[in-house]
Amino acid sequence: MKNPFRRNAPDREQVVPSVKTGLGTFGGVFTPSLLTILGVIMYLRFGWVVGNVGLLGTLIIVTLGTAITFLTALSIAAIATDQQVRTGGAYYMISRSLGIEIGGAIGIPLYIALALSVALYTVGFAESVTSVFPSLDFKTVGLVTTLGVATLATISAKVAIRAQYFIMFGIVLSLISLFFGSPIEDTTIEMWGAADRNSEDFWVVFAVFFPAVTGIMSGINMSGDLKNPSKSIPRGTFAAIGVGYVIYMILPIILANRADALSLIDDPMIMRKMAYWGDAILIGVWGATLSSAVGSILGAPRVLQALARDRVLPRSLGWLGKGSANDDAPRYGTVFTLAIALVAVYMGNLNILAPVLTMFFLTTYGILNAAAGIEGVLDSPSFRPSFKVHWIFSLLGTLGCIAVMLLINALATALALAFILVVFFWLQSREMKTAWGDVRRGLWMAVIRAGLLSLGQKKESKTWRPNPLVLSGAPTKRWHLIDFAASITHNRGILTVATVLTGNQIDNERRKRMEYNIQDFLSKRSARGFARVISAPNPFKGAAEFVKFYGLGSIVPNTIILGDSENEAIRQEYCDMIAQFHTLKRNVIIVHDNEEKGFGNRERIDLWWGGLKGNGGLLMLLAYLMQSSLAWYDAKVRIKMMVPNEKAAKDARRNLSAVIKKLRTGAVLEVIISDGRSFDTVLHESSADADLIFMGMALPGAHFIDYYTKLQQRIRSLPTTVMVLAAEEISFGEVLMQQDAFRED
Description:
Blueprint lengths: L11 H4 L9 H13 L2 H5 L1 H35 L9 H9 L1 H33 L5 H18 L1 H23 L22 H8 L6 H5 L8 H30 L2 H6 L3 H5 L3 H32 L21 H17 L2 H29 L12 H18 L1 H20 L10 H16 L12 E4 L7 H11 L6 E6 L6 H17 L5 E6 L3 H11 L9 E5 L7 H13 L3 E6 L11 E5 L7 H12 L8 E8 L2 H18 L4 E6 L5 H8 L5 E5 L7 H12 L5 E5 L6 H6 L8
Parallel strand pairs: 1-2, 1-4, 2-3, 4-5, 6-7, 6-9, 7-8, 9-10
Antiparallel strand pairs: 5-10
């Protein structure tokens, strides 16, 4: 773990400045987005969609797909107008909102989807070319085309964008030609797909179509090259969605009126036959597929570049974050993306690639919506987008994405989510540090606030658990106190390790550094808790004041754990501190450590008991918690009671056996007859071989210091002994009736 107090810690957010090449809304967002929307799916698979699900089914698919995209665009607009968006597009937005781990978990599959999109579009281009020129080899055309668009993207992003203006003209020309075309056969409009010809399922068709409306990513992924991303991304994205939706709602009507369903399904180039000038469709197909491929080959390396610069990728791939020339173009990333696309072109086809992309894009859309929705719910002062969207719409978009993924293919959804979770936990295991904040802290704050307000001040026996405060001094020298505390919490209670420093020269920076060191020490020992360092002129009074005021709402340390002190010079102050803790209704546990034996073999716990009242209930509960912890798992607990004679022993066994059996702690009762021996003698004879001893303490009173002096003399040569003083206004007997809730999972 790196020390945050070290000066000049690397700041990822400032390592590489974002370089703007001055692309505007029309050229940088609207054009690439619309050209990707009006792409290969529209020309080569839209007739197949209409033929399988009919006119009404197609209109529903278009509306549903566009609705999800529109809701996502609302969320994107909110995030984009709240923060400065740099290279990385959707990945950048998610990582700066939900954190580097979630951003990386989505950014990596997003990059894969964009890289495969290149293959999707070049495969579509090859399919259309070979349908016109059958003598050409399909894979050769696809591979050569992929190399060509990658070369164009490598030369310059501006050149690629300018080339898309000519492609836009070709697409407009093809649509005009289609509009003024004519039917190719007599047909009856089918509103739904016919079951008698084994039409594809509605959700299978949706999965093939959905990449057509994911074109908004092409503009968003150019965020690092835009002159003004916060304005261009919302305006260009909404305009592209609107124009695309109108076109996609008109086209099914034209197709359904000009050919029957079987022709629409069987002929990918059927639009060419319908158009007034058939070759205009070829221009549109080739232009759309090439422009979409260019958009993807421009976007994918920029996402990869952002992932590498944020050190999300393995260190061996750090070179992918390098930029070239004055525009910081990701040429290394382009070559890397080209390699993936070439493999996909060689192996894939449209109907296989499209559903894979659908899953990855839906996942990205869902997380983008979730990021904006969470920001809206939390209403953080730092979240002030100029484009305001109610969080309901964002969360509706998230639910829509999840629902559609499950309806398309539940298994594929599970695999996609499993892949994302693997990446997430891998990134989390690397304990990545970022220079930016994210929404997670605000989310936990909202949950904590709601929980604290719901808890109120009322205490319930059923839900009681120890929330220990360990006054440890130097934790490295008194690890046994923290070890004991961790054992009774089972990593579920709230553990705090506190140290009181004395002196006037202790500044805030030193205290913070010590807190960090203690926290680091706890983490390395797998003890989960908080560290606090305070300064006070007097350590005992300082500890009492700290216990008095430490906590939030009803969540306060209910159990104080101390080390024993045999220093007679401070005994009065030590005992006064215990009395103050008891007055504050805090249970007190004093651990007298046997330095030679420690906790022994952690196999046997002796509990000297005087009944459930007073300290008895808490003693029994603590012994049970120790026994059921991982460190003391399956240790034997012996409940010991001393009586004067055999008659008293019979009564004790008869009465207590039933109680202990009802408590179901697994403890064994052992009644010891004194035969005239003193308690101290019986104690030392009976518990000499124990690994840990539990005993109760008397209530603090006028002669408490004398009592405590005798108590120390009693336990001096015993194994490690825990002295317990119950103070909370709660029935620990009732807590014991619920003890099964504390068992380790």
